[in-house]
Write a structure and sequence with these properties.
InterPro entries: AhpD-like, AhpD_core, CMD-like. The chain is mainly alpha-helical. About 60% of the residues lie in helices and about 0% in strands. Helix 5 (about 85-100) crosses helix 7.
């Protein structure tokens, strides 16, 4: 499988990705645990059918010490007992924020109330931003049909 175009080497794409990557860096430095961030990115990528991002974030999580069991259970986190309450709240916010078109009123108040039990305001801004950014990356890669499987942890710096 080949991507529709080489997005990663295109000059305009490079300018765009520079800004998205800067936003992602700011969001990732705001105190949400790294492995929680990888769970969020993986779950959104699964929902959006982005093989490239799912490959990337499961491999990055594994390289950071995440267990195979937890990685294998992300898509079924509601039934899994291996996630903390804080992680579950972040995963629920991720699902609701990613499937925003499926909910007439957006993210429900009870989902928001639950996530605020575990994260302070700065971390909430980080989570909202991470969810928005991974959804942008997912859309770029799905539209471009970016193939999955070849990512190596750290290959993008």
């Amino acid at each position: 499988m080949e991507p529709r175009l080489n997005y990663f080497t295109h000059p305009l794409a490079g300018k765009i990705l520079k800004h998205i990557n800067s936003a992602a860096k700011a969001a990732s430095d705001a105190g949400v645990p790294h492995l929680t961030q990888e769970l969020v990115k993986t779950r959104a990528s699964q929902i959006n059918g982005c093989g490239f991002c799912t490959d990337m974030h499961t491999k990055d999580a594994a390289a950071a010490g995440e267990s195979a069991q937890r990685l294998n259970l992300i898509a079924t986190w509601r039934e899994a007992t291996v996630f903390t309450d804080a992680e579950r709240a972040a995963l629920e916010l991720t699902e609701q924020g990613t499937r925003i078109a499926d909910a007439a009123g957006g993210v429900p108040d009870d989902v928001w109330a639950n996530v605020t039990k575990y994260y302070d305001e700065e971390q909430l801004v980080s989570l909202i931003s991470l969810i928005a950014i991974i959804n942008a990356y997912n859309r770029i890669n799905v539209i471009n049909q970016q193939p999955a499987g070849g990512y190596e942890p750290g290959m993008f710096g």
